[in-house]
Amino acid sequence: MTNFVETIGGRSPLTIAAPHSAILQELLNDPSKLPPGIDGRMVVSLDELPDSVRENLMLGQRGLVRDTIIGAADVAAPDVADFFHQDRATRIWTRFPRVMLDVNRELFDNPEDGLKEIDGNSVEGHGPPAHANGVIWSRTADRSRTRHIGLPLGTFLGLFTNCKPMIKRPYTQAEFDELCAVARDPYFAAIEAAQESNKARYGHSITLGLHTFPAATAGYIMRGPNKGAYQIGPMATRRAPFELKKIPSKAIPDAVVMCQAGWDGKGERSCHTRITDIILKAFKNAGCIAHVGETIFGSGGVPKILGKPGKGHHVVDIELFGTGRGKDALEPMRTKGGLEINGAQVDKLRPIYNRIIRELATLETRDLR
Asked: Is residue 67 within 8 Å of 26, Cβ to Cβ?
C-alpha cells in the first residue's frame, strides 16, 4: 500500500506539518520538470492513488477541475517555511491531494457554518446540509467577479455559479473508509505520535501547521446544489478586516495565527499565548499585518482536535496570504490553476518563519505555564 504520509524526525519539541501541499503529477505542465520552489516529495502520481479515486475523479474536465485541484493546494507553504531544511523540527506531510480527501478536517458537522463536513454528494448515506468543499470536494470552487462575495442574489442562492462536478458519483462508505485509512488516519496518527514522543522527551509538544491562501476576496456559496463551495473573487486589499470570516469586507491581513481563540483573543485556545505572541511578533517586526483568529473556513482541524495545552500539547496554524497582491502575490496564479511561487515573497517571508521556528523549537516547558 502506498504511504501517503511522511515523517522526518527532529531534535526539539516542535513539529511542523504540511497537510495541504500535495500536487498531482499529471497536472503539471511538464510532468518531468517541477516548478521552482516545489519539492518532489510533495508530488503524487495518479497511479499511486486508490482505484476509487482514479475511477471517480473527473479529470476529463480539464478546466475548472484541474484549476481547483491545483488551486486547493498550499503549494508555497513548504517553500516559504524552508520545510525540508528545518532539521530541528519533526516534519510531517501528506502526498494525498486535498480535494480528494482533506486530512485536516473534522469528520463531523460544523454547526458554526451550518455545514456537514461529509455530505451525500461526496459519500453515500450522508444527507444534507451539503458541503461541496468539505472532507471530499464534490464540486469545483467558483470564480466570482464581484468583491462582495455571496451578496448578489444569483451567487447567494448558488444557482448561477461556475461550479462543476469533481466526482462522477458519491463514494460508497467502504471507499470513503479506505481513503481515510490510507491518508487521514495516518496523518493524525503521525502528529499524535510526535506529540507524545516530544512531550515524553521535552515535557511538552508544539505543532505548527503550514497553510497558504490566495490573497483574494473569498467566501462560501450558502444555498443550492453547490452549498459549501468556495467562492474566490478579485484580489483583496492589504489591511486588517474586523473579522476574517467576513472577507467580503475586501480586506485581508498578511497572516492569521489560528489557535481556536476568537478575534478578541479570548476563548478556549489550542496553544499557550506565549506561542501566538512569538508568531505575531515575528510578523509584525517584519512590517507585516498579522492577527490571532479562529479558523477561516471549515472546521477546526488539527488545532481543535489535538490542541490540549492543559496536557502539554500545543497546536497552532499559520494561514499565510503574503504581503503582495496581483502579480506580486505569493501564489500569483493560484486562483487560475497556476503553480508559480513568487520568489521575492519567499525571500521576504522565509526569515520570519525561520525566526518563528527557531524560537518555538527552543521554548522550555516552564515558558508555557
From this structure: no
